[in-house]
Amino acid sequence: MSIEPTQTWLTQEAADRLAAELTELEGPRRADIIKKIEAARAEGDLKENGGYHAAKDEQGKTEARIRQLKHMLENAHIGNPPAGESGFVGLGMLVTVDIAGDEMKFLLGSREIASGDVDVYSEKSPLGAAVLGAKIGDTVTYTAPNGREISVAVLEAQNFF
Fold first, then answer.
1. DSSP classification of residue 116
2. pLDDT per residue over 116-131, tens digit each?
């Protein structure tokens, strides 16, 4: 099974956590912000009303997060990572690479599936796209945002879960 470029792979636990966050934001959080805005409006002059402007800013950030969560959940592939061939880098794997003599370990996939203190690189990022599908022992290159070509040796890849 392959994942479409617009999809994000999520574990069931991550999807449930995001759905609960969405429910909280759309319900109690949204209602709380509306109350803050109404209370600030009742104070009068909105030009110099810091509480009003802070509440409107919070409302904007909350609505943006709601849109982000809805999009992510609507386009997510929920379940186990796609089964890849043994010895190859795939989604949901903890990947160890060597970049210019420095060893680096990261999860390949979405930040939303990470638990604990692990760096996460999307499969859509330059580094993630370069290592996705690479065989352990391969050296791949990618172009960094600054235009520099970077070589990466794939040392290890193991299932994160």
1. S
2. 678 889 888 999 999 9
